[in-house]
Amino acid sequence: MPEPDSLRSHDAAQARLAALHALGILDTGPEPQFDRIMALVARYFRTPFGSVTFVDDHRQWFKASVGFTHRSDPRRQSVCALTVDAGCPLVIPDLLADPRTTGLDAVQGGHRLRFYAGVPLHAGGHAVGTLCVLDTRPRDFSDEDREVLEQFAELAQSELRLRLALRDLEALALTDPLTELPNRRAFQQELASACCAAGTGQPLVVGLLDLDRFKPINDTLGHAVGDAVLRFVAQRVRALLRPGETLARYGGDEFTLLLTGPDAETRARQIALELPHRLHMPSGLRVGVSLGLVLASGPADPRALLELADHTMYRAKAAGTPVVHVRYPNDAAPPGD
């Protein structure tokens, strides 16, 4: 049975929004490259208004603009939304004479706009915004004009492609290729942010997890099996976590945990209790873990927290106990193992 048109339309709208948000451009500050493009466009076409605009589900937002002093409008008041919905260039010689635009606030009042020409900007195969020019008088717009506007739009499009490429490179730089978990650098960045929040009373738990008897697996069965064990452990531990809780590969056979929020300590204990039961490998290989957990509920130094978690993990390993809990020195209450 074919999908209803409404369902397909909803799915397409969600895919478009996902492509827009993947750019990470909404609500960002001015950037010279977009400002320069917009200034050139407005000067070439001699229009008092123009913008590089992105359209989400409820508004149009200006990344760069000429003539406008505000940054956004409701979507229902947006001419650019028509361009995005059409997915192709749109020219309206007289906004007041077009039934789609005659009632818009920017036409009836405010800037009293009369002319619009826009070209869609794409990301992920979806129209997510426009490069457009507007005037306060009706205008003709030739095929040559449209071609030039499309060429200017390609400059903006190139900036968007570069932005996505840089974001992909950054993501690769913060990801462990074997387990696809955040890597040491990513974890350190997140921990630093969490420690700043802890200074305002936001509790956090740092955990350092080390695999037991991992070296003999590598030595006797080979690194391919060792890699499979690391991926298995990463998948099983990650399955225990909730959104907002972080597991990272810190290096070798060490993993780090970061839990934040008022229930961070409770969640840490839940994970610690469940973890040993989740690491029975289908192949029959047995791998144990030693886990050190450190709770901080006040100002904390990221490096000191990691060092204490490392010391606590080795206490667990030496004692043959899967988990040891301690509290950061600033916490007055003693731990309950």
| Major sheet summary line | 6 strands, antiparallel
List the domain count as a whole number: 2
What do the pLDDT scores average to?
90
The largest beta-sheet arranges its strands as 3-2-1-6-5-4
List unreliable stretches of 5+ residues: 332-337
Helix content: 40-55%
Reported CATH architecture of the largest domain: 2-Layer Sandwich
Structural class: alpha+beta
Please give the alpha-carbon distance between the first and last residues: 58 Å
Provide the gyration radius in Å: 28 Å
Q: Approximately what portion of the residues adopt beta-strand conformation?
A: 15-25%
Shape: elongated
Order of helices and strands: HHEEEHEHEEHHEHHEEHEHE
The CATH homologous superfamily of the largest domain is termed GAF domain
CATH class assignment of the largest domain: Alpha Beta
Could you name the CATH topology of the largest domain? Beta-Lactamase
The number of helical segments is 10
Number of strands: 11
Domain GGDEF: 202-329
Protein name: GGDEF domain-containing protein
InterPro entries: GAF (IPR003018), GAF-like_dom_sf (IPR029016), GGDEF_dom (IPR000160), Nucleotide_cyclase (IPR029787), Rev_trsase/Diguanyl_cyclase (IPR043128)
Question: How are the secondary structure elements laid out?
Answer:
Blueprint: H1 5-23, H2 32-45, E1 49-55, E2 59-66, E3 72-74, H3 80-86, E4 90-92, H4 105-108, E5 115-123, E6 126-135, H5 143-173, H6 184-198, E7 204-212, H7 214-221, H8 223-240, E8 246-251, E9 254-260, H9 264-274, E10 288-296, H10 302-319, E11 323-327
Parallel strand pairs: 10-11
Antiparallel strand pairs: 1-2, 1-6, 2-3, 4-5, 5-6, 7-9, 7-10, 8-9
